[in-house]
What we know:
CATH class of the domain at 21-29 and 47-170: Alpha Beta
Number of strands: 24
Strand order of the largest sheet: 2-1-10-9-11-12-13-14-15
Bound molecules: malonyl-coenzyme A, adenosine monophosphate
Helix content: 25-40%
Strand content: 15-25%
Structural class: alpha/beta
Shape: globular
CATH architecture of the domain at 21-29 and 47-170: 3-Layer(aba) Sandwich
Oligomer: single chain
Amino acid sequence: MEPGGESLWRKVGLKMSQENLFAALHAAFPKNLDTVAVETDHGLNYTWRDLDRASAMMANLLDGLKLPKGSRIAVQVEKSVEALMLYLATLRAGYVFLPLNTAYQSAEIDYFIGNAEPAVVVCSNANFGWVSKIAFKAGTKHVFTLNDDRTGTLLERTAHQSDQHKTAVKKADDLAAILYTSGTTGRSKGAMLTHGNMLSNAQTLKSYWGWKKGDVLIHALPIFHVHGLFVAIHGALINGSKMIWLAKFDPKFVIAKMPEATVFMGVPTLYVRMLAEPSLNQQAVRNMRLFIAGSAPLLIETFTEWQQRTGHTILERYGMSETVMLTSNPYAADSRHAGQSERRGGTVGFPLPGVKLRVQGDDGKALPVGEIGNILVKGPNVFQAYWRMPEKTKEEFTAEGYFKTGDVGKIDERGYVVIVGRSKDLIISGGYNVYPAEIEGYINEMPGVAESALVGVPHPDFGEVGIAVVIAKPGAQVNGDHIVASLKAQLANFKIPKRCFVVSELPRNTMGKVQKNLLRDQHKNLFSA
Ligand code: MLC
Ligand code: AMP
């Protein structure tokens, strides 16, 4: 809600009138553009000049389409350096990037495209048939393909463009990206992030995490969510740092590459999977400077085991699609919290500089230290609004401009923020969000189903996974495996419940509401090792 600080672009030597995030990232490219910016797991090297030229060419392609101001460029493609270039080109040309999870299927894509009305859609060749049908129906004029092997119509059309491009002039408050986040009830909401939101956060993290010359980031996350797209990519680019780029996370490959790197970012599942590798030892991490975790709670067992195996203490931070990063454990001694330089497991650290964080009761009153309540935040990183949902936006902000995160937590006696749960009915599985209401809606539509409840239970790999508990209509025969199979045909794979139980009744309170806590408790050991 607040504009990105006036001085952000000045810091990197840009003119008063230019507040485009790309301009700031570009200004941080190293002087020697012929050094490697991205090294892929296929052994390809892309220089900074390659990033510059290709993003210029793609931006020229977009410019040539004469799109209306503020057009959305919706992208559902496998991870590749060309996909990264497309993101940079979209910023550079001044349009709005809309990344979509590659696991989404037609009903999901139909909603996002229908809601966002993108002017351009980019998808893989394999999905062109059904994606283009949805896009053209929604009024999209241009559908390109981009595959992860450097083919597709986007690149064919780009090849003819000039490699010189003048970055579109943007204001800090101008929209740069829309990230869809699912809703507890109702449909997904598009969080509108501005150039200022993202640059302020990137600059804060650059200094808070001590990014320095020579840092090399291992990038092993998907690039359609905040963590991989913004925190990781902006972090490396704004520091002029090379990235070692994996199309898909592979624990063995990451560990083998660590001697050439200094920084790693991952969701907790990635740490759990690396701990299962015997090759993870102090020798492997000898050149690493920093391990960062977030997007889901990092179990204290993982935090401790990592410390014991590697000698490194994982730095846990907390963020959201609507806000990018909010809090972080300290990298080094934090002058605002004298003596508090310790990274504490089970906490997400301190509010980042510029972020105001408040814990309050349901009555809106601030709670004293140690008491558990709702977490609210304010700062230059907090999004503008939900796309075309003014009522929803109003509901989620207080009169003083604080955003209600939906997370529940406390501030401990040393000032560390601890997240203890969520007021929103949300399951976080391997770092992906699953909203029970969405899955329950699909199950409830199935023949013979009277009602269903989806709950999250602990899982050794994904941290938490969804399971479904279903009641059949009187006389109907319902089969849990069939329900799972039918969901698989309709929804992104990470949303599919790992088990589905058919029962005769669901536990309810006196108001008749399903007591999900009892279901969670009943099934909590389902996946215990
Ligand atoms: C895959 N599967 C999952 C899953 N990922 N199930 C539950 N939860 C998940 N996250 C299932 C698939 O459905 C499939 O099941 C099987 O696992 C194999 O699929 P896969 O695609 O081969 O899986 P894998 O490559 O092993 O993926 C696991 C993973 C991935 C952990 C690498 O989920 C991942 O990249 N997660 C990171 C998500 C992320 O970036 N989140 C950041 C959000 S931003 P079947 O039955 O079909 O075989 C955010 C803000 C912030 O939260 O603070 O950062
Ligand atoms: P998303 O909407 O996908 O951006 O997910 C944001 C949510 O992830 C937050 O609201 C939190 O519930 C959760 N989250 C992110 N980081 C952490 C963390 N370090 N610990 C616990 N939960 C987290």
